Amino acid sequence: MRLLPLLRTVLWAAFLGSSLRGGSGLRHAVYWNSSNPRLLRGDAVVNLHLNDYLDIFCPHYEGPGPPEGPETFALYMVDRPGYEACRAEGAGAFKRWVCSFPFAPFGPVPFSEKIQRFTPFSLGFEFLPGETYYYICE
Q1: Is it true that domain 5-137 has CATH number 2.60.40.420?
Q2: How far apart are CA 121 and CA 107, in angstroms?
Q3: Residue 2 burial by CB count (10 A; 0-12/13-18/19+): exposed, middle or buried?
Q4: Which sign does the torsion angle of CA 29, 32, 35, 40 carry?
Q5: pLDDT in tens, 77-118
Q6: pTM for the whole structure
Q7: CA-CA distance, 104 to 28, in Å (whole number)?
Q8: Domain ranges in the chain?
Q9: How many CB atoms lie within 10 A of CB 35?
Q10: What burial class does residue 69 get, using C-beta atoms within 10 Å of its C-beta: 0-12 exposed, 13-18 middle, 19+ buried?
C-alpha cells in the first residue's frame, strides 16, 4: 500500500444535537479521494445532527486507474491531537474503514456512519451532541 497525497488531508465533523429536528436524518456524502477539491484544500467540514448519516465513498476507477497506482488507504477516527499531528496513533485513534477495492465492479465502495447517541452494534460508534469528531487517512 502506498501513502496518498491525502495523508495530510483530514475531514472533521461537528455534530450538533438539536431537539427540533425530526426523527429521520439527512445523508451527507463525502467522496474520499485525491480529486476531491474540498479534501485537497483541507476545508472538508460536515455539520451533522443526531440521526444523520455520513456516507464516505472510497476511490473508484472504471479503467486502469492513475499511472501512480490506485488509491487505497485506511480511514481512522482520531482525537484532536491526532488530527493536528495527522497521526492515527494513541488511545484516541481507531481504524473505522479500509478502502481497498478501487476497481469494485459495482462502483465506489461506500461506508456509512449513522450519527446516533446509542448503537446496538458492537462496531458502531456512539456520538455525543455538540462534540467534534475527526477523521484522517493513511
Answers
A1: yes
A2: 26
A3: exposed
A4: positive
A5: 999 999 989 999 888 899 999 999 999 999 999 999 999 998
A6: 0.78
A7: 22
A8: 5-137
A9: 10
A10: exposed
